[in-house]
Structures are given as C-alpha cells and as structure tokens.
Design brief:
Farnesyl Diphosphate Synthase; 15 helices; disordered N terminus
Length: 312
C-alpha cells in the first residue's frame, strides 16, 4: 500500500506527470515527439457527523462552478459574482458568517473541522479562469488548471477525514486530476458548445487533428483514425493518473476508503466506455448504466479487500 513518491518534479522530457508518479507513464514511453463531480455528495458511506461538511463543500463548488459555466450572464457579471464569493470567504476568515447560501453552512463546516481556506480560493481561481480562458496550449497548462479546479476537493476531504500526509496528498491529486480529465474526454461535445476545448493544443497538433473536426464529428457522429488515436492517448493519461492514486483508499477509514474506491472504479469504467467506442464520444455521451454500476461496486469492493491495491 505504498504511494509512489515523485522522485523529481519533471521528467527529463519535461512531462509534468512526474508530479504524481516516478514510474514512466504510457505517454512518456510511447510518444517521443478544463466539470467532473469529483466526489460523491454525502453518500451513506460518509459518517453522519461528516456529512454536513461534505454537502457544504459540494454546494460551494457547485454554485461557484455554475457562476462560471451556466446561464447567459456576461463575462463581467460572472467575474463579479465569483469575486463576491471570494469576499465571502474573506468574511469567514475574519470570523464572520455570511447569511446567504452556501456560506452559512460552509462557515460552520470550516470552523467545526478546521478546514483550510486555500483550497476554496484555488477553486475560485480555476472557475474564474473558466470565464477568460477557453484553450490550453500544453498538457502542463491543463494540469495546472486541474491543480486548482479538481485537486482542492481531495485536499479538503483529506483534511476533513484527518488523513493528511505528503503521500496521501500526492495520491489524492493524481485521482482528482485523473477524474477531471476523464470528465473532459467524456464531455468534449458539451464543452465545445460552451466554446471550450480542454484537449491540449499540442496534442491536436501531434495527432494532426484540427478543432473543426469536433464540430463535424458532433454533426455526423463519426470519428476518423486520427481522432481515435488522440482519444486513446488522452484516455491512457487519465487512466495512468487514477492508477497512481490506487493505494489511497486503503489509508482512509474503511467507509471513506470504500467510497473512494467506488469513485475511482466509476472513472475507470467511463474510460473503458470511451475506449470501447473508439473515442467516438459524439454518437452518445459515455455514461454508466445500471449494470455498469454493479460492475463498479464489485470492482470497488474487490480493490478494497486486496492487500496490494490495484484499480485495474
């Protein structure tokens, strides 16, 4: 149950995956040349005394994400609303309790469980970026976005569960980023309609794919070999990151660990769905049917019971 530490910040070729794993990942070995629900909403596995805090974290993240993402508000109005969220965090830091939702419950959770404020501010930073940035030049740029859009959720839950450690933080970041990437590849068509492309521009170039193909593939629900190669590559990255965090569930209290195993298993199942359709996420959005959830539950329990944790 050992988390593989990052032996160095960057691999020789500058690949930022080394932030999570010291073992070479698929895209390092084979290639030479930005909303995922990152945590379940207070399922029955979460101990009752922690459930209100999980709900408060979720409602904050969901509300802030919607400010950046939903409706027809202007960019200026979205940025102003997100700035207001930041001011409410400042009020909580000063010992005050904002009356409006979701901040009253959030303030109670932060004080009761001594949660850090910096992850909430990181989330706001990422959602603010969603308003102004719609493309990512490199995978490193996308990882930096995930560091603020996804990883803070895991860090907050580690704090809530009193499970903070350097090794757990590395594993949690890998899982959260892997889940975020999974959602990006699942929702390429949805994000395109919002004017966003999370596929790194350097990867589009590497696989000779142009953005106009996304529009055509949405219209015709068909993909070509270049697109299949691109999605296979991106899916392998997400899967490798989830694999990097495979030991984390065993370090948590059993209920939270079992729940996390299920979350990771669900992400892996989505990636299998994308692979099964050859990267054609346009004919139908990859989702999990009832029988998939049964498979997810079985995989989660199996993983949880193993001494040598494996998520694949």
């Amino acid at each position: 149950m050992e988390v593989r530490p990052a032996a160095k910040l960057l691999a020789p070729d500058g690949d930022p995956s080394s932030l999570f794993c010291e073992t070479p990942l698929p895209w390092q070995a084979n290639v030479s040349v930005g909303h995922y629900e990152n945590f379940p909403v207070a399922s029955a596995l979460v101990p009752a005394h922690l459930r209100p805090a999980v709900i408060a974290i979720y409602k904050f993240a969901r509300a802030a994400d919607d400010l950046a993402d939903e409706g027809d508000a202007s960019p200026a109005d979205r940025l102003a609303a997100l700035a207001s969220f930041g001011e409410n965090l400042n009020q909580i830091e000063r010992g005050r309790t904002p009356a409006e939702a979701p901040f009253a419950a959030l303030a109670a959770a932060i004080r009761t469980h001594a949660l850090p404020l910096s992850p909430f501010r990181d989330l706001l930073s990422a959602f603010t970026q969603d308003v102004t940035i719609t493309r990512y030049a490199s995978f490193a740029d996308l990882l930096e976005y995930c560091r603020r859009s996804a990883n803070p959720v895991g860090r907050l839950l580690l704090a809530l569960y009193r499970a903070e450690s350097p090794a757990n933080a590395i594993a949690s970041d890998a899982i959260c980023t892997g889940l975020q990437l999974t959602n990006f590849w699942q929702d390429i068509a949805i994000d395109w309609q919002k004017g966003r492309v999370y596929l790194p521009q350097e990867d589009l170039t590497r696989f000779a794919v142009v953005e106009a193909q996304i529009d055509a593939q949405i219209e015709h629900a068909r993909v070509d070999e270049r697109w299949r190669g691109l999605l296979e590559f991106e899916v392998s990255r997400a899967r490798a990151l989830l694999d990097c965090g495979r030991s984390l569930p065993r370090t948590l209290p059993w209920r939270q660990g079992l729940e996390l195993s299920a979350v990771v298993a669900g992400g892996l199942r989505i990636l299998e769905r994308i692979d099964a359709v050859g990267g054609n996420v346009f004919a139908a959005r990859p989702t999990l049917a009832t029988w998939d959830w049964l498979a997810v539950a079985l995989r989660a329990i199996t993983v949880w019971r193993r001494d040598d944790v494996e998520v694949r």
